Please model this.
Amino acid sequence: MRNYKFLFLLCIFCIGCSSFVRKPELLKKSTIYEKPSTARIDFIGWEYYEKHKQALKRHIARSGLVTQDASPFLLEIRLVEKERYHLDYRFWNIIAFIYTSGLIPLYDGINHRLEFRLYKGVREEAICTYRLSNDQFSGILLLPLTPFFYPSSQQRDLFQKAYDLYRKGCAKN
Model:
């Protein structure tokens, strides 16, 4: 009986996770505005992504935007998780994963919509919306890729790339 427990634990620790992200896709761009040097920042919808939110705050500070409570500008960063994919497909994917002992990877497609809204006082100055797609795979064959494409770090980098595109594409210098 101990051999089976050991084998089970070994299999669990040998399953690799890898995440492959696509470039953020611009969905909506309302106006081009002057970049503010200071702003208040409000995060909406980041309850499950606290570590990513903190990393994005540090990235924003490194990019030159100073967070200041007295600023007339408010940057609202809204994260909306979109529906994943059809439940029937997921059921058959889980069955194939279990039946092949992890040789057929388990797939999870995650889609987000990330909105950057800039307000001056109560007036909305600009809005930019991006679609973020993240394809995550788990399986034994993906173990060598795990250190390079770990899902959490890929997701964090995707949020930062979207912010960089927002600063570059929706603002003029």
About this structure: The chain has a mean pLDDT of 82. The longest helix spans residues 151-169.
